[in-house]
Specification:
alpha+beta; extended
Length: 80
């Protein structure tokens, strides 16, 4: 698939439906999926697309950059 990139996002697994319906089987499945994704990240087989880590006070500026599409990847706010 040259020229085509596939990105997997945990939130695309419809987390809300499993939690809102109180579906314990779905919630356990989400936990397994989350563990598997974290393992892939740890092993270097899944790119987190982390571009930048900002302090809490830098979040407004970071959100502006994101909204203007000046960032390729993810920005994470460090709370402590």
């Amino acid at each position: 698939m040259l020229g085509h990139v596939l990105f997997i996002s945990y939130h695309e697994i419809a987390l809300g439906a499993g939690h809102q319906s109180n579906d314990m089987v779905a919630q356990k499945d989400y936990a397994v999926i989350g563990d598997q994704m974290l393992y892939l990240v740890e092993e270097g087989n899944l790119d987190t697309m982390l571009t930048e880590v900002v302090r809490l006070e830098e979040v407004p500026e970071a959100l502006i950059r994101l909204s203007e599409r000046h960032v390729k990847g993810k920005i994470v706010a460090k709370l402590k």
